[in-house]
Here is the input.
Amino acid sequence: MSHRGAFIVIEGLDRSGKTTQTETIQKRIQEAGKEVVCIKFPDRSTSIGKMIDSYLRSQSNLDDHVVHLLFSANRWELASTILAHLKQGKVVLCDRYAFSGIAFSVAKNLPPINLAWARAPDASLPSPDLTLFLDISPEAAQSRGGYGEERYEKEGMQRRSQERISDGKGGGKGTWIIVDAGRDMSAVTEEMWVHIRPLLDGLDTPVGRLWD
Ligand code: Z5A
Here is the structure.
């Protein structure tokens, strides 16, 4: 039986090192002789992604419900691509996913954007086999480069979204691992690799769906 690839999501707060670690892990997977495709959400290259980018840079204002639905639509734009890569046996490494979508919208404290409302648009998206949540305090994140340039990069929003980012983890059958991202980069990579390596030979189970 041919194996499908593993769908691995890297989640975490702003400046927790998601992009840095995605690049390092991508190289490691390639060095292990496996094919890997990297995806990042929001994908700012699509027409929906461009609207999100403009909003995040405070160049435009959008209703909070609309923004939430745009982030979800941005994932749906790539859902069939993710499934196609997995079917071809490639590892899909994804920087942020629906868990960020829920966390940042619910953190706004604007009824009716509660957990149930926020989860609904992402229902049935491909569900990750493994989510590595890079955990860091907002204070430590702030001390890292580039903090404060975009709309959500404020301490209160970061703290509230951190409290909410695990809300989606009960959905799907995948594994959720918390990684202490406050350590040096190589220590973080090594811990992530321990969980990723066993998935590189592929899986023979169907891809799950959020929030089954
Ligand atoms: N958002 C949303 O609301 N709804 C959604 O559905 C989704 C997202 C998907 C933009 O996301 C915003 O969109 C985000 C959530 C919201 N808002 N906030 N906040 P983004 O992913 O495009 O942007 P980002 O979170 O700002 O990503 P980032 O800037 O790329 O951060 P990162 O990837 O976690 O960190 P990094 O770039 O790898 O590292 C940041 C710096 O820290 C850099 O200088 C590194 O060299 C340094 N670094 C990294 N690791 C370490 C360690 N271990 N030690 C010391 N320094 C380190």
